[in-house]
Structure formats: C-alpha cells, structure tokens
Inverse folding.
C-alpha cells in the first residue's frame, strides 16, 4: 500500500456544514473544522471520477482510501507543521488566572477506584480516567497539540504550554448573512434570510503562514499531485499539493500503551472499538497473535456523521461516532507487536466482511495512533 | 474538482453597497468586510447571485443554460459548475492633494493579488516592494506636493520605486478593459499607484469609504420624517477588487445526462465570453445607481 500526502488549503473561506437542519427561513448553518475524513474522501474521489471519465464503479472498487486528516500550517519555505485536536485525556487550564501566568496541560490518569466510591460510569473497565489538580479550574477549548506536542504526547512525556498552540492561530470563524433574490422582482424573497458560518484559515499575508490540512491518501496513484477541489458548502475551492509524509514517531513496544483515534471511530458497539471482545468480565483487543486488555477509556460525547451516496443517490445513514481524540488505555499486552503496526496502517475495522460499516473504511474513519501510556 | 481557474477583476464605476446585513457601529448599513483584514470585500455567494441575475435574460443563457451551469434555483438535484471566490480588495482610491486621487495598494493586497494570479495560472512575475512603517512607494513624483504625498489630511514621505512601476504596468495590462474608454484609467494606474504601509492602508479602507446619510421624506409635508435618518456605507468608485473563478465539468441530475455535456473549458469559456469587459450591477440600491462594476478577466486583451 502506497501512501502519499496532500496539503489542502482553502482559496479564501470554506463552510463545512454539520448535520443540523438547514433550509427554513432564518436558519443558521454551522461550520465544522477540521472536516470529517469522508469530506476529503468525497472531494478527492471526485477528482478521480473526473479523470477516469465518470466511472464511479471503478473508483468504488479501487483500494483508494484516506488514512488521516491533520490540521496543519505551511511556512513560506513550504515546510509543513502538523497539529492534532487535543486528545480526550488532555486538559488545558490557566496556571494562575489572577496573575496571568500562562497555561498548564494536565493529563487524565487511569486509576482504580475504591469499591466504596459510587460513580455513574457503567462499564466493566478496571480503571477510570482521573484528573488530579490542586484547585478547581475550568478547562479551555480551542487548543491544538503542535508538532513537538504530538511527539511528546506519543512518547508519554509531560506536556507544557510549549506543546500546545491556540486554534485561533490557524483559523477563525465568521458569520455571513445571506438572502435569496427573486429573479423577477429583483428584491429579497420572503423567508430566504439565513446565516452561514464560514471558517477563515490563516492566509500567507501574515508572516507567510498558510493554514490548512494534511491529508493522507493510500493507493491514490491516479490522483494528480496538485489541483483544485470543491470543498464544503457553496462549492468553494481549495488548492491541494503534494507534501512530505509527516514525521510521527513510533512508540517503543511495551505491555502498556494508549490507542488514540486520529479520525472519528464508527464502531458497531458505540464507544467500544471493533476488534475488542469481552472475555471473563474484561475487554480484550485481539489481533493476529496479539492480545491486550482494555484498562480504561476517555471518550468524548458522540458525534454524528452522515453524507450523501452519489452512486446510489441516497443519503448515507446517520451514525454515531466516537470522536477523534478519544483515548483507550491497554495493559497486559502480549504476543506479536507487529500486529499493532498493522492497526495503524489499516485502521480499526472488524474482520467480519458483513459489517455494514465497512463501506466507510475508504472514507478514512477509524484511523488510530499509538502512544505510550 | 475544479479543472479551470481564472482571475476576475472588478472595477467599481459607481459606489457599491454589498451590505453586511448586520451592524454594531454608527453606520446603519455597513458594507461587507473580511474578518481577518477588515478590508472591504464581496462574498462569493453575493457575487455569484449578482452575475446570475445579470445573465438571466442574456440570449446565450436561456433555455435552462443558467441552471445547468450555475446550479438549479429550486430542487437542488445537482451542483453548479461555476464557483466564485470572495472578491478581495486590490487598490483603494484615496483623495490626494495632487491628481485628485491615487490608487492605494499595500504589501498585503499585492501579496494576495500575486497569490491568486499564481493560483489562476496568470503570470505575475513582479515583486512586492518593501514598505517602511512611515514610508510610501510611488510610481511617479507627479503625485507629490513639496516632496510629500498628501492623502486626505495625512502627509507621507515617499520615493519612486521601479518595482512598483512594474506592478502598475501589470495592473494596467490585466485589470481593465483594453478599450479607449479605459485608456485614461489604465494610464492613471501607471502613474498614480502608491504603496502604503499596511496600517496606513487599513486606516483609509476603514475610514475613507463613502458614507451617505439618508432621510425619508414625508409625502405630505415634504420634510424629513422623524426616525427616518440612517447611514449607508459604500465602497467608493474607482476601487479595484479581484475574485478567483473556478469551473468544473457540467453536473447533472442522476440519470439525466444532457445531450450536450460541457467540459470545464467550455463552461469557463462561456462564462468569460459573456462577462468579459461587461458592466454588471452587484449589491444593493441598484435603482439609485449603486453597484456598477466593470468585469475583466486577467490576461484578456
């Protein structure tokens, strides 16, 4: 399997719509960023479709797939820096708000709870992710793990504020009001007032930095190195160009490790990844010649993905996903660790061929990273 | 996928009111502005809608052609084949003690122009002149008064720049129709283009737009009605903007492939043939003369 990477940047603004209804008078269209991998899959498959003369079946049967979508920025020399949305086991808070002393990054740590402690988590996991901090502090949204932060996180190191970057340094949001014009009267039509949220990525006028996405593509040999794709609502344009493979360090193999969802997880059992089976009151990840116990999990609130099937001309089922950044801790790992590498290159998919979610595999869901515990 | 891209210049010949639709300042009806630069702009959706209206009764766009290429007005069975990006400000007219007004540009506007030109495959082999914090670049010292550039109530030190002259010549060749009616303005761009530092440029685009007070006259008394005073902002005439335009193959509803199926080159060609060097109305207040812009595709003679 050959994997290449494209840097994708919007020509001006883009609006990646979510799943909320949009169509009535006064509707507000939300914009999501970064987009779900299926959005990029559809955009690049459209390129293949145009180039192969409109043969959709050939594309469906090809091994083309998305392997990851990273927020990124490119400097004026073309060097690309990757980012990750904060994994679910990281929280950013103020060190001391009254003194304005910067940020502190805290990790949730798996811990066994005393049986006397009553809690609401209904699960058979032996540990719960616990936040330890000296005094109450509200975690902040809008932070990304930067390139050095990704390396430190995957290596299991302590994180500091140098490892995080404010999301606003890469993109912002703006609201646009729209009307529908009546062709005959040339005035605004009744009931056609709406607002749409647009994402405004950093453009190179500011220190030569361009914000965008790095998209991993497997078996995309027929894809041109560069061009324009139609991305999101209003048919807005984005440019894509070939970029180097991102440097993501592999972790040393050990009996304990973390599995982090790089893209949303579409699993038959909700939050529980496919390939994990219950045995003797515990959950076990079982791969070819490899076994590890699921010890703990930090999974954020479910997100819904849907889409449009252009071949069947039908909306795809709306499915709940475990969000990107969800973290699963494993211990008692034994066997052939090479099976874990396969998990990273192929994603977390059940072996059963009749899994109805398998059609989403090429769209880039269920991709994972491995990190030290 | 967009297989074709072109660069569309928009030159305002009357004040243009592309309304933001919301206001929190002293101006009741402000124009659209970019979030990150606060420069006036025109949202791609508004531009596409205005051009769709312009072509609505155009001979070559009848019998469903408009819906085929711009997308259906109702029942969105398929997507349009044409996409307009936001129109970004390139040059802004500023009142000058000499030569009535100058075309002001800034390093940011030129950088964006060059980027869009490269995206559209238009050769723009000029550099962006460096601008000091209080130093301007000019193309001809005829805009100076006592060796100073005087814009509105501000005085700037300025020096001639051969680099900026190259930019001005490129704009004169690419931004305006090459007919006799625009000869004066092509020449004026060559001589009266000035590069301001970004902060000075931002000051003018935020404070030197056309702001018009309006009142509502009572039909019977012939005097202003109470509560009928409002302020409307316009982009001034002689402003120059640029928008990227993209085209894909013609789309169609499932199993309804048209007999004559246009590729991206044909789509872009049809659009350029219909719009090149045309006067088009964009934005609001059309019946009071607002929004007249001349369109010109870069690289067209």
């Amino acid at each position: 399997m050959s994997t290449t990477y494209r840097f994708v940047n919007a020509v001006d603004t883009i609006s990646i719509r979510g799943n909320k209804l949009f169509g009535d008078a006064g509707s507000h269209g939300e914009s999501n960023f970064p987009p779900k991998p299926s959005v990029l899959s559809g955009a690049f498959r459209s390129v293949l479709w145009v180039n192969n003369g409109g043969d959709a079946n050939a594309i469906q049967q090809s091994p083309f797939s998305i392997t990851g979508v990273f927020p990124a920025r490119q400097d004026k020399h073309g060097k690309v820096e990757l980012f990750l949305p904060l994994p679910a086991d990281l929280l950013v808070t103020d060190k001391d708000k009254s003194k304005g002393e910067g940020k502190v990054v805290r990790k949730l740590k798996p811990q066994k709870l005393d049986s006397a402690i009553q809690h609401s988590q209904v699960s058979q996991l032996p540990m719960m992710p616990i936040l330890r901090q000296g005094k109450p502090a509200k975690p902040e949204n809008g932070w990304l793990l930067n390139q050095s932060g990704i390396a430190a996180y995957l290596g299991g190191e302590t994180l500091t504020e140098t490892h995080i970057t404010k999301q606003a340094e890469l993109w912002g949001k703006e609201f646009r009001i729209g009307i529908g014009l009546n062709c005959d009267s040339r005035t605004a039509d009744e009931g056609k007032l709406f607002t749409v949220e647009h994402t405004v990525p950093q453009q190179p006028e500011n220190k030569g930095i361009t914000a965008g996405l790095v998209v991993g593509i497997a078996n995309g040999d027929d894809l041109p190195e560069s061009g324009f794709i139609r991305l999101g609502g209003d048919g807005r344009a984005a440019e894509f160009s070939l970029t180097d493979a991102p440097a993501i360090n592999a972790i040393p193999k050990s009996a304990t490790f973390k599995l982090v969802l790089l893209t949303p997880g579409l699993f038959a059992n909700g939050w529980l990844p496919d390939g994990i089976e219950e045995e003797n009151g515990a959950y076990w990840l079982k791969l070819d010649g490899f076994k590890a116990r699921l010890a703990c999990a930090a999974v954020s609130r479910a997100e819904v993905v849907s889409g449009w099937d252009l071949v069947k001309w039908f909306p795809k089922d709306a499915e709940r996903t475990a969000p990107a950044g969800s973290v699963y801790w494993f211990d008692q790992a034994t066997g052939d660790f090479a099976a874990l590498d396969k998990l990273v290159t192929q994603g977390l998919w059940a072996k059963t061929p009749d899994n109805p979610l398998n059609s989403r595999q090429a769209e880039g869901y269920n991709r994972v990273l491995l990190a030290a515990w | 996928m967009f297989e074709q891209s072109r660069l569309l210049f928009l030159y305002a010949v009357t004040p243009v009111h592309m309304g933001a639709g919301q206001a929190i300042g002293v101006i009741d009806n402000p124009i659209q502005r970019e979030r990150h630069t606060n420069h006036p702009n025109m949202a791609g959706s508004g531009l596409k809608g205005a051009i769709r209206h312009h072509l609505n009764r155009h001979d070559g766009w009848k019998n469903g052609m408009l819906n085929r290429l711009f997308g259906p007005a109702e029942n969105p069975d398929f997507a349009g084949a044409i996409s307009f990006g936001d129109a970004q400000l390139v040059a802004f007219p500023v009142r000058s003690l000499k030569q009535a007004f100058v075309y002001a540009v800034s390093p940011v506007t030129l950088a964006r122009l060059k980027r869009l030109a490269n995206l559209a495959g238009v050769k723009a082999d000029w550099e962006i002149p460096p601008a000091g914090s209080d130093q301007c670049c000019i193309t001809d010292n005829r805009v100076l008064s006592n060796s100073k550039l005087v814009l509105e109530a501000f005085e700037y030190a300025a020096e001639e720049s051969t680099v900026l002259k190259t930019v001005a010549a490129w704009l004169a060749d690419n931004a305006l129709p090459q007919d006799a009616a625009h000869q004066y303005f092509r020449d004026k761009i060559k001589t009266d283009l000035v590069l301001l530092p970004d902060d000075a440029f931002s000051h003018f685009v935020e404070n030197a737009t056309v702001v018009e007070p309006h009142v509502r006259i009572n039909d019977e008394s012939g005097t202003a009605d109470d509560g009928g005073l409002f302020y409307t902002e316009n982009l001034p005439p002689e402003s120059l903007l640029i928008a990227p335009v993209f085209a894909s193959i013609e789309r169609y509803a499932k199993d309804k492939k048209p007999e004559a199926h246009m590729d991206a080159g044909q789509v872009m060609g049809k659009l350029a043939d219909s719009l090149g060097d045309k006067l088009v109305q964009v934005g609001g207040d059309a019946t009071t003369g607002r929004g007249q812009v001349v369109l010109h595709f870069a690289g067209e003679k």
User: Anything to note?
Assistant: Chain A touches chain B through 34 residues (CB under 8 Å). The CA atoms of residues 265 and 366 of chain A lie 4 Å apart. Chain A has a mean pLDDT of 87. The radius of gyration of chain A is 22 Å.
